[in-house]
Write a structure and sequence with these properties.
This protein is α/β, with parallel strands linked by helices and 224 residues long. The chain folds into two domains: 142 residues, HAD superfamily/HAD-like (Rossmann fold), CATH 3.40.50.1000; 65 residues, no CATH class. The protein is built from ten helices and six strands, in the order E-H-H-H-H-H-H-E-H-E-H-H-E-H-E-E. Helix 10 links the parallel strand 4 and strand 5. Helix 1 packs across helix 2. The longest helix is centred in the N-terminal third of the chain and has 19 residues. Magnesium ion (MG) binds next to loops.
């Protein structure tokens, strides 16, 4: 049974700081899914003379081992592990990097009501650069933080205290939007004031609302 939507229910007057995830939340996760699940296996198979099926099975196994860790996002780690130039390969298909609908309107809206807006991502600085260059959205943020600077992934509860020390926000007056349930769980454990789940991270998949957190499909639902 699909879970029904619990829409977010807050007033912007309760919030000073907005923390936004990048992949799947602001940007279409189709790029990342396609890159790791199709493009990398295809090039890996060709480079190492494997069948496409064997290449995919071997890679999926390796991905799973480092899931939810910073290593998963480390492009240099993967370049070395797989014998491929991962940053260059991302640039090769950067036409698939897309901003989700209503994101720009939302970013302009929250600026107009004087909120402090931060991009907080597990993505590697090289991935961040490729995506900021392609989308041109960097100027909308007061700060941009890569998990690498904090020293752990957003899925780890200690991440949030370290981020607070770094950015100096009042957690009870802060909203986090993310498309990964594990990230919302760790932020919830830490005591983040407001949590919003993004229910359609990839344009190629359907909407799946969270059973645990208020959900949105697109950011126009937060313009009020
Ligand atoms: Mg994400």
């Amino acid at each position: 049974m699909p879970c029904p939507q619990t829409p977010p229910n807050f007033s912007w007057s309760e919030i000073d700081t907005i923390l936004l995830d990048m992949d799947g939340t602001l940007l279409d996760k189709y790029f990342d899914d396609h890159f790791w699940e199709e493009y990398v296996p295809q090039i890996f198979a060709r480079t190492h003379k494997l069948s496409p099926k064997d290449a995919k099975t071997a890679l999926m196994e390796r991905y799973r081992k480092v899931e939810s860790t910073l290593q998963w996002c480390d492009l240099d780690y993967w370049s070395e592990q797989l014998g491929l130039n991962i940053p260059q390969m991302k640039c090769d298909i950067d036409h698939l990097i897309k901003i989700h609908p209503y994101v720009i309107t939302f970013l302009e809206y929250v600026k107009s009501i004087n909120k402090h807006v931060c991009l907080v991502t597990n993505a590697h600085p090289k991935t961040l650069n490729i995506k900021m260059h392609k989308t041109g959205i960097a100027h909308h943020f007061d700060s941009i933080v890569c998990a690498e600077e904090i020293g752990c992934a957003k899925e780890q509860p200690e991440f949030w205290q370290k981020l607070e020390d770094h950015l100096q926000y009042d957690k009870q007056r802060t909203l986090l939007a993310d498309d990964t349930a594990k990230v919302l769980h760790s932020a919830n454990q830490y005591g983040m004031g407001f949590l919003v789940f993004v229910a359609r991270p990839s344009s190629k998949n359907g909407v799946v609302f969270s059973p645990d957190y208020p959900s949105i499909t697109y950011f126009n639902e937060l313009i009020h």
